[in-house]
Description:
- By secondary structure, the protein is an alpha/beta fold.
- It has one domain: Flavodoxin domain (Rossmann fold).
- Helices cover about 30% and strands about 20% of the residues.
- Strands 1, 2, 3, 4, 5 and 6 form a six-stranded parallel beta sheet that branches.
- Helix 1 runs parallel beside helix 4 (about 130-145).
- Flavin mononucleotide binds near residues 56 and 92.
Amino acid sequence: MSVVILYGTETGNCELVADAISDVLAVDHDPSIYDMSEFAVEDLDPADFLVVVCSTYGEGELPTGAEPFAEELDSVDPDLTGLRFAVFGLGDSVYGETFNRGGEIMAEMLTKRGATQVGEHARHDNSSTVKPAKQASEWAQTLAPIIEPLTTN
Ligand SMILES: Cc1cc2nc3c(=O)[nH]c(=O)nc-3n(C[C@H](O)[C@H](O)[C@H](O)COP(=O)(O)O)c2cc1C
């Protein structure tokens, strides 16, 4: 079991969030971080624990960096039964009804293929005074006990 952190970003906030999550999870796990635009759907291993970090653009759409991965998920349509994942979404409440849709879209796409979402679905609000990396560190601490520890045999 490996911990894989995938981020889909437009202007880089998600990358900072992914780094903050990785710092926390690195205490008990050995996480790998990938930009979704450079990650092949075929490399998803249902035995892994996936952390998805995704912002929202347009009118409640995925950011550009998440589009190739989402398109590949649709075309390859893998069976992800057994895969556990958690989502940290980024958005801005100024956009009203489309607030944080990007992370929700990714969660729906994975769940539809048999994966199971665990933990709290985090939603950062860029209109708040809370820094995304700080919220992400606190969130990752709640996630750590849900992920199985690395076995060393
Ligand atoms: C043109 C534009 C459109 C956006 N649309 C939405 C939206 O529909 N819903 C939302 O919650 N946030 C929206 N956002 C806010 C971003 O998701 C938010 O600023 C996020 O922190 C950006 O993260 P990133 O740099 O990783 O892409 C939008 C931002 C911009 C600049």
